[in-house]
Amino acid sequence: MDRLTKGGAATAGVAAVGLLLAGCNPGGGGVRSEGSAGPTPGAPRGAVTASPSPSSTAGYKKVDAVDLLKKDPKVGPDVKRTLAKPCAADEYPIEVTYASVTGSKAPDVIVNVMTCADSIGIGSYVYRKDGGAHGGTDGYDNVFSNEQPSVSAGVNKGDLEISKQTYGTGDKVCCPSGEDVTTYRWSTDRFTEFARYHTDYSKTGVDGTQPEDGNASEG
User: Fold this and answer.
1) C-alpha–C-alpha distance, residues 135 and 9, integer Å
2) Three-class SS of residue 69?
3) I need a labelling partner for 84 at 20 to 30 A (CA). Which of 37, 70, 92, 121 fits?
4) 106 contact partners, CB below 8 Å, separation of at least 6
5) CB neighbours of 1 closer than 8 A, spacing ≥ 6?
6) Chain segment 164-195, per-residue pLDDT in tens
């Protein structure tokens, strides 16, 4: 599995991404995740781990996500530098989820990449099996990418959710002030934004603040 299981501080940090990935979506059926998913400071509040649904991911084929990212021309140089070598032993700071978010017959591959030292998300990607028909990498087409710091991708009821923790002045890495979440739905041949909201951890409930535009690209 492509997960970080040892290596001091990096071991504790990478677990947060597993929680971000599968945890913030209590209704996200049909999700099969690889990697750690233990509770760690910095994970979204109220997060729980989604249970895999064998029926919707049956027959999924495990991919070499690290190799896929390294070969993908759409992946930025900072992410590729992070994946140049393992954080510890042969373990890389990534989390891989197999789920249906594009309507493809084959499960889509959702990959989160983080830093080794503090598990800050630096890249989230969705790969769709296309048989190489669209010039994809190893038979997979990169249909979504976001390389804005603290980003994390997850699945909620078949929709793609992109989360970004927000920090105020003086906030520590472990303790963000809030979280921006944008939901995307697959339409024809690309993801389109469906909804977005901001949660302020210092208040109860959800306010109406809109997150700033990030460095995201679909397709």
Assistant:
1) 39
2) helix
3) 37
4) 60, 61, 129
5) 34, 35, 96
6) 988 888 888 778 889 999 999 999 889 999 99
